[in-house]
C-alpha cells in the first residue's frame, strides 16, 4: 500500500506538469486554431535557458525564473505569432500544422547547437533544501507539492480568463471568424498575440518543472509532450478540466507502470511507449470535431501530363547515372540517399497531396520496409523487395483503419503516436516468435543490409545501388503521376475536398483510405529498403519520428501535390546539407536547422517550390537553342569528369552555372518576344478571342472571395 | 434628411475582376434602404466595402459626414457601423452569453447587453449557455440581430437575413429591423427575396453588374422592374 501511495504521489506530480503543458496546448488551440506541435519544444528551450542562467551563469533562481517566464517566453511567443504563424494564418490547417512541425524540428536543432548534447546537465529540484513531508505513509517532496499547486492555480486562472473575461472571449472568437471579430470592435491580432504569449509561458512553466526529474535532452524533452498531447485529447482540445483529468490518467499510468510492470526483455519499451499508445486510444475513443471555422482553403493539385512525366522519369535516371559516374565511393553512399529518401518523400504525394491525409509516420513505414528487406533479402533475393513493399503497405492499411475516424490535426497526432510506439517499443524489441515464425527487427542494435541481385546481376556497389534507386524513384514517380491522372486520383481529391460529398456520391471512404495509405506506405517501404541498401547497416534511430520530420517538412516545402517532389525533396534534403558540411564542417549545426527554416518559409510559397521551380525553368525547357545547348554542355562536362580531367565539385559548379546562365538567357529571349497587349477581364471574348483557360482564370478569381 | 452612410463612386475588385463600377448610395437616419439585384450583382461586396471588410479601389465612404475611406472594420465598428454578414454573423463555438459579451465594446456592460437581447428575444435567454453554432438558423439570426440592438449602431448593414429561414421567421425578423430603424438607425439591407424587405423599406436601389441601375421609393413601378430583372420579362 505504501508503495502504491508513493507511486501515486509521483504520478500526480508528473500529471500536474502534463496538465500545465496540456492546458497551454488547449489554450493556443481554442484561441488560435493552431495545434502547436512545437509546444513541448518551447518548454524544452525554456528549461535549457533556465539551466543556462542558473547552472551555467550562476544567476539566482528568482531572477532566472523572472527572465525566462516574464521576458524570454513572452518574446518567443510573440516571435512565433508574428514570424512563424501570421504568414500562414490565411492558409489551411495543414500549412499551419506544418509550421509548428518546422518549429519543433528547428528548435531541437537550435538546442543541440547551443547546448552540446554530449555534455550531461542536471537541474536541481525546487525547494530541495526543505524536508519532505508525509501524507499517510507516502513521502511528498516540496517540488512535488509546488508542481501540484502551480497546476491548480493555472487551471483556475485559465478558466476565469477564457470564460469570464472579454479578452478570453475575444481570443476564442478569433478562431471562429476573424473578420467578424473585427466587426465587433476587437483586434484579432492582439488576441492571437495574447494567446501565444500565455501558451508559451505555460510551456515554459511545464518545461522548467519537469526538467529536474528527467534527462536534459532536447529531443527527449520535446517529445515528453506526447503525454501532454494525450491529456489535451482527453480534454478534446477544448476543456481545461478534462485535460487535467487526462493528465492524471497519463501521469499515474506512467508511474504505476514503472512500479508494477513485470521485468523482462520485451516490456521496458512498453512503459516508454504507453503515453503514445494511450494517445492513440484516446484519439479513437473520444468524439472530437474540428473547430467550426471559415478558414478551410484547399489548393489545386496539378495534373501532370504523360509526356512530361516520362521526360521527368528519364531525367531522374540520367541524373542518377551522372552522379554514379561522377562521385567517389564515400560520396556515393552519402548522396545516394537523394533517391532513396526521395522515394520516401514521394510517398507523401498521394497520401497528403491528393487525399489530404497528414501522416507523420512515413519514415517509420520506410523503417518497416528496410527491416523486412534486411532480413528476407540478406542474400539479395529480389522477391524480398516485393515482400518489403507489401509488408509496409499492410502496415499502412492497418494505420488507415483508425484513420477513418481521424482527420486533420487528429490524424497527424495519431500517426505521430504510431511512430512513437514503433520507436520506443516495437523497433527496440529483441527477436520473438509469432505463429512459429521468428520475427527479428533491429536486433536491439544494427542490422546489416545487402544489395539485391537482379537477373543474376549483383547490385553490390554504391554506384550500382544509386542507379537502381534512381530507377526506382523514376518508376515510383510514374506510378504516382498515373494515379493522379486516373480515376483513383480523382476520387482521392474528391475525398480530400469533402469526405461527406464523396460518401454521398457512392464512394467508399474505407476503401479509398485503406488503398491510399497502403500505396503510400508501400512506396515509403521501397524507399526504406533502398536507403538500407545504400547505408549497408541500419539502426532504429534512422527511422524515428524526429528523423522523419525534416523529410516531411522538405516534402511540404516542395509542394505535396507535385510528382516531381520526390526528386526535389531528396535533392534538397541530402544535397545542400552534405555539400555544405563537406565545404564547411563548422556549419553542421546550421545544416540541421535548414529543414526547419525551409518549413517556416512555406508561407511565401504555399503552392510549393516545385511548382515555382517549374514555372521559372519552363522557358529553358521550351527554348530550341538553350535546351540543346545545355545538354551539350552537360555532356561535355560529364565526359571531362569521366576522363578525370575535372573533379566532382568543378563538374557540379559548372553544371549549375551553365543551367542558371542559360535559364536567364532563355527567359530574356521569351520576354523579348512580342506578346499580346493585356486586355481587361471584362473584354475577354470581345476585344480578343475567348480561350479555354479563361473559364478557369475567372472561376479562380471569383472563388478568391 | 441628411445621409448617415454615404457611398460615392465606389469601385471594388477581386483580383483583376472589378465587381463594383462606381456605386452611389445614401442611407439617412431612421431609413431602411433595400439593396436588391440578381446573383453576382455586387450587393454583398457593397456591404463589405461599407463595413471596411473589403477595400475600395476608388470612391469615398462617409459616415455622418466624416470621411472614413480606407478605415479598417474595427474602427468602423467603433464608429457605429454594424454588419450582420451573410450566413449568420455569430461565433459558432462561443456560447450565446459569450457572443453577447463580444458586444460590450461600445461601453455597455454585459448585464445591460444581456437584458436588451433577452428582452427582445426571450428564446436566447433559454439558450444562454448553449454554443451558438448549435442554435437553429432563426435563433442564430436573432443573436446576430441582437448586436444591432445592443451596440447602439448608427448604421446597420444586413446581408441576406432571410437565408435558409422559414417565411414566418423572416417576417418576424424584419419587424425587428423596422423597430431598430424607428430608433433612428440607418439600415441598409441586402436581400435576394425582395418581397420581404420591400414591405418595410423606405427606399430601394437595384444593383446590376456592379452599377445602381435604378433607385427610388419601392412603389409599383420599381417592383415591376424587379420582376422583369429576376424573371427576364416585364410580366
TrEMBL record, chain A:
InterPro entries: ABC_transp_permease, BCAA_transport_permease, LivM-like. It is a multi-pass membrane protein. GO terms for cellular component: plasma membrane. Keywords: Amino-acid transport, ATP-binding, Cell membrane, Membrane, Nucleotide-binding, Transmembrane, Transmembrane helix, Transport. The chain crosses the membrane at residues 6-27, 34-53, 59-85, 97-115, 135-162, 195-212, 265-286, 306-326, 332-351, 358-376, 382-401, 408-427, 462-483, 514-533, 545-568, 646-666. Pfam families: BPD_transp_2. GO terms for biological process: amino acid transport. It is found in: Cell membrane. One of its GO terms (molecular function) is ATP binding. The keyword Amino-acid biosynthesis does not apply. Belongs to the binding-protein-dependent transport system permease family. LivHM subfamily. This is Branched-chain amino acid ABC transporter permease/ATP-binding protein. It comes from Streptomyces olivochromogenes.
From TrEMBL, chain B:
Residues 5-234 form the ABC transporter domain. One of its GO terms (biological process) is L-amino acid transport. The keyword Disulfide bond does not apply. Keywords: Amino-acid transport, ATP-binding, Nucleotide-binding, Transport. It comes from the Bacteria. Pfam families: ABC_tran. Gene3D superfamilies: P-loop containing nucleotide triphosphate hydrolases (3.40.50.300). One of its GO terms (molecular function) is branched-chain amino acid transmembrane transporter activity. InterPro entries: AAA+_ATPase (IPR003593), ABC_transporter-like_ATP-bd (IPR003439), ABC_transporter-like_CS (IPR017871), BCAA_Transport_ATP-bd_LivF (IPR052156), P-loop_NTPase (IPR027417). Belongs to the ABC transporter superfamily. This is ABC transporter ATP-binding protein. It comes from Streptomyces olivochromogenes.
